[in-house]
Amino acid sequence: MEFDLSTLQPKERASFALRALYEAAGCRKYHMGRFEEYSLYQANRSFLSSEQVITFTDLDGRLLALKPDVTLSIAKTAQPAPGETLRYYYHENVYRPSAESHTFKEIGQMGLEFLGGVGEAEVQQAVCLAAQSLGQMGTDWVLEVSHMGYLFGLLDALQVPEDARAGLLRKLGQKNAHELRAAALAAGLDEDAADTLCRVLTLCGGYADTLPRAEALCRNDAMRAGEYAKAAESYARIKDDYPFSPYAVEAELSLADAYFLNKKYAEAAEAYRDFETLHPRHSAIPYVLYQLGMSLKSTYRSVDQASTEVAEALEYFQRLEQSYPGTEYAEKAHEQIAECRSLLAQREVYIGDVFWSMGNYQAAWTRYRYVLENYGDVTDVAEYARKKGESAYLRFRENSAEAEREKRQGSWKDYFRWL
């Protein structure tokens, strides 16, 4: 008899799918009882979302509790050897108070716990599994990633008193800027510190926009623990270790973004090029073309430097504007096209000025004329090139006339050579 998953309820189908996913990833199911000694939760009250727990006295006199949490029970019993990583998944019911009904609810939970030797690779695997788990639900989803070390580092930098930290973290969690500011001032922070703390609430959105703003708030090394260089290493490992995962594609793009945010523009340009080559029909291609152009443009430092990358960036911006008109990045590309043309025009004028300083007025005039013919829309540069071009042409004609006269009549220098 063949088992048909379609006959199951949605929750049951999700449970089977997640079990298969976790076991394929090397995780073992953790089996546990329904009850736990209350002393475990009493000793770890700060870990629980609420101190309210259903308790009862067992027949042997022990005070037991219906589990409000799974993680504490696994952490208590799982004892990894030095350097060992234990990977567990669980499917358990927990009992917690509901803020809406003010009654206890039985809640089904399924999740993962990695214990012991947990490094970058394990964190990457957990994040990938979290994204894949959400993907199994069959609805739109968003995976939120946070780093408490960033917040603790900020609290240290602002010298927040220890007894006020828990309250401020709760206000941050509630995302209430007014109450957060009032609590910060009540805790003894000055106006600037309170404003800085409130700015944390604005750190939301896509990583390409949010990470630079998060970096601007960094006050110490603890807050910089998630620096872009480490992010680039992490994305590279996901890309290499899980090449056939659907999230490897996103990791490729995130790798390029991490290089760009870390100001490694040459590596970023190469990564964006690779992404476009491998995924030419991906929905993010307009963004990729824009970032590729920005990476190339950002390698340009000064007018005395070769402008090859700027010219290449201009091609990508023009291609983006022509191939994806009306998109957000096509509009941004239009602005960058003007900037690139200005840089290229300035480069040509600089070369003309070099020829001028060498007395080669014909070559200088040729460069200035080239600017007028090809960059007339860069008005300030074109006007400078026009004036210098006129002067260069006059000097060139004067020198040519003098050379022609000397050719016919001889030069005064010949007199001194005769003497």
3D structure, described in words:
The chain is mainly alpha-helical and 419 residues long. The chain contains 18 helices and 6 strands. It has a 3-stranded mixed sheet with strand order 1-5-6, with helices on both faces. Strands 2-4-3 form a 3-stranded antiparallel sheet. A hairpin with a 6-residue loop joins strand 5 (85-97) and strand 6. Helix 4 (120-135) packs across helix 10 (228-241), helix 14 runs antiparallel to helix 15 (328-357) and helix 15 (328-357) runs parallel beside helix 17. The model has no long low-confidence stretch (mean pLDDT 81).
| Rg over alpha carbons | 33 Å
- What is the spatial order of strands in the main beta sheet? 1-5-6
Shape: elongated
Q: In whole angstroms, how far apart are the ends?
A: 120 Å
Q: State the helical fraction.
A: 55-70%
- The succession of helices and strands, N to C, reads HEEHEEHEEHHHHHHHHHHHHHHH
Number of strands: 6
- Biggest beta sheet attributes: 3 strands, mixed
